[in-house]
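Lab meeting prep.
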Amino acid sequence: MNTYLIPANTKKGTLILGIFRPFDLILFGAGVLITLILLLIMPMGSTGQVILVILPAAIVTFLIVPVPHYHNILTIIVEGYTFFTNRQKYIWKGWCVKDVKDVKASK
């Protein structure tokens, strides 16, 4: 019987609380701090004003929520941006020098 011991997620050991990167916590702290400052400064006369004041904390909380197969929503957004802004046409160079001649001849 071949059994292997493979760690489920070795990346978790480098994360704070097994979930957050330092940047995630800094981003969350900044959003909450902005919300707290707005709570002290802005009047709370209507529901719209309350929503606007709470919006920074809500946005950063949404960005750092963990999701399956990715680290968090921020990671998905950054990877999507990188995918769409980088080169989309990939040029095949072959496995060896002889392949290059064959590719040029076929064009």
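Slide two material, second protein:
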Amino acid sequence: MKTIASIVFAGLLVAATLYLQLGGFLIAYGIVPNILLIALIALVVRGVRWTPLICALLGLAAYTFFFVPFWIPGVIALMCCVLLASALPSHFSGNTTADFLILLLGSTLVMHVATALFRFSTFSLSSLIGDVVYTVCLGAIVWFITIRYGKKSYSV
């Protein structure tokens, strides 16, 4: 029952972040933060099991394939970053806040470089810097607001 509840929570979290991201509620000066990446990296660092994470990623992949196919390269990069982050928890620093911010920063950079490397988008340094700063700052705000609800969250 606990696994089913975790799958439902992860699915609802992905759906809510997709709604926020596609709705454009947090756009500032033309920069759209990657809210979906923030949520998925938070799930990984908070210690979610593999089953809910895989189900959420498969649901995201299906949604992307059928409704927003122009996102496929970005979602593939996002899925690779999230799966890599969840596969390497022994290499984390032990401080969950630092782990979250480092993974968020690295994943944002990897996503920009991967989509530019495979020529799915143009590479703009100003866009990269703006997106990294905005996503990491928004991620830090979300992290500190939700810190009391995590499993391993009491390291600030």
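Talking points for slide two:
Helices lie at 2-23, 35-46, 50-67, 72-87, 96-117, 125-145.
Residues 2-23 form the longest helix (22 residues).
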